[in-house]
Amino acid sequence: MTMAGNLRKVTGLGRTGGLRRVARLARRRPRVDLNHHARSPLGSSVVNCVTYEDGVRVPECDDLFSAVERVRKRGDGFVWLGLHEPTDSEFAGIGELFDLHPLAVEDAVEAHQRPKVERYGETLFAVFKTVCYVEHEKLTATSEVVDTGEIMVFVGEDFVITVRHGRHGSLGPLREELEATPSQLAKGPAAVLHAIADHVVDDYLSVTDAVQGDIDQVEAAVFTENGARTDPGRIYQMKRELLELKRAVVPLGRPMEELTTRPIRVISPEIQAYFRDVFDHLMRAKEQIAAFDELLNSILQAHLAQVTVAQNEDMRKITAWAAVIAVPTMVCGVYGMNFDHMPELHWRFGYPLVIGVISVACLVLYRGFRRNGWL
Length: 375
Description:
rod-shaped; seven-stranded mixed sheet; single chain; 375 residues
């Protein structure tokens, strides 16, 4: 039986009891490709499980228990187990097999954790927030721009367990890239942790570059001739999406700094040098997000200023027209009073004279307001 085929039995050890039952429960199953973005074709949370020796993937192996036992007996190589949104019962046997701390297991199953790095005895537990740019034809006040997920990584001396939550962030392509460079995989589980961190941070940079295009689009719309009529909901939506990205990137700074500076048993000084490069990229993404936040604040303030100016212009136009209309209203109001003795009531040219005076007065007011920019 292949390791992948028997892994379902290991994830059910919390119910069936006893790790050594794996051998008795084994049965033949055709080998399948488990590099899938969601759940395994086997119907469980298992995405992939591979043993590496000297940086080379072992083509055929027994069940998970036997593989771990073999790696520990040889004192070389490690097992990489990939899971997608496992349940408590599915993870129970795995936690027992690898002696994982219950608090770390709870965090891995429940998800919705802040990026962090914690040490439990000889095991390192890291949490990364994954981000993905959501393509859209047109940015609206309800457009989803950034989608987030999580990757939890358990790192020991002879194993790596990755637990993924979310619709994106598949580690299949990353696994293939690592297998193409056996010299890097030969450095052990810490090399896998570095590759995952580098992969996640590179996605941060890609998403920030894509978000910048949306921000440029909003900025261009605000500073057009009719920028005051731009929907402010688009700006607020970009700020909300940027906040989602910020929650993924900013908290990772402290844990990544610890990986580069503090001595950790499962991470050799050679691998720590690689983490410094990841930390530099993370700081770049963090600075870009801070700059985007400031730019959106400026765009929002500029838009509000444009709306205020447009409202003032509308009020001036209304006031100017009201002044123009006030002249004929006043004259007509005076001559509309029912008095017998009023100037020019019975004069033949009285009516044309009044109309002319009204027209001239309105024309003078109109030209004056037009000259001053009120109309």
